[in-house]
TrEMBL record:
<dbReference type="InterPro" id="IPR016181">
    <property type="entry name" value="Acyl_CoA_acyltransferase"/>
</dbReference>
<dbReference type="InterPro" id="IPR007434">
    <property type="entry name" value="FemAB-like"/>
</dbReference>
<dbReference type="Pfam" id="PF04339">
    <property type="entry name" value="FemAB_like"/>
</dbReference>
<protein>
    <recommendedName>
        <fullName>N-acetyltransferase</fullName>
    </recommendedName>
</protein>
Amino acid sequence: MGNSKSANETGIVIRVDESPEALPQDRWDALLSTQARPTPFMRLAYLRALHASGSAVSKTGWRPQFVSLWRGDELIAACPAWLKTHSYGEYVFDWAWADAYHRHGLSYYPKLLVAVPFTPVPGSRLLAVDDAARTLLAQALRALAKETEASSLHVLFGDEADQAALAAAGCTARAGVQFHWTTQGDADFAAFLASLQRDKRKKIQQEQRRVREAGVTFEAREGAAITPEDWDYFYRCYQLTYQAHHSKPYLSRDFFARMAADMPEHWLLFTARRAGERVAASLIALDPARRAAFGRYWGATEHVPCLHFDACYYQPLAWCIAQGYERFEGGAQGEHKMARGLLPTPTASSHWLAHPAFADAVNDFLAREGAAMAGYIDELNEHAPYKTA
């Protein structure tokens, strides 16, 4: 049962649960299956794994506040939400807002966040049977922010329907950009390379040649074929990536064990070997139903020049083309991805601040930032890496 319940004038019950385990997986995933832009990361098994593994819990600054709307026994809307005591693991940066609050003697935290922790993949966030239910869910989030005395509400990387419902609830949109590859019907990786401008093609070929000349080969394993030993090696690489940046991994080894057990069909692992020994690993998330792949995590136990680009972009792109996948999302940030065939793709988040003066200031900032972002994307598109007709 929920940690708290309330009913509105229509008789719809609003629940707030402090654990995703309190929600029925079949009904949650049934909602997800009807959304415009579903992703595997919004499956309840994924969200439960984040919680059960200790990766996104109150101790790490993510206090769960899963919101669901019920009409009798029918789940009509739901979303994952957290009360956050920091802004790590989000990839939509509001540190400047938090600093402004602090300089004025105000508390920015806790804030109410709707997102998939540590996963900047755009898609549906407010799961609902229809637009009316989605609008009620957006209003319930505003009410929850007020009830919990959160400074603000943030919904990250939502789809168009989410943005419309949140705008009606008083939120302001924030524009962003990521870099994605979408299929052009290429028969193989060689055809993909041939579609690029000469300098971009030569650079990729040179980088791959350096990796081959270093004696590195790749193997790809998908789903249940990824062994516990493979997962152990990958996690070692994952830890080393964070250590190189003097930080700690967001995700625990137990999280990936749960992924291997509960969602194996959504994972693809590239392992790089030299002289038979593993030297690096790149983990890709898959959405087989929608023929989409997502670059997620990488790490190496030995430095090899250009290995990162091959493991994280060229091998996954070659695999996607060979398997008939239609989209590869490279993750947050990174203009360098354009030279590898990934193009700028607009993203959006929605924000509401309780403090009127700060809300006005942030809304003004977002309007100016949005205009600048539109111009930035136009400029990026003028330098697309593909040949022109």
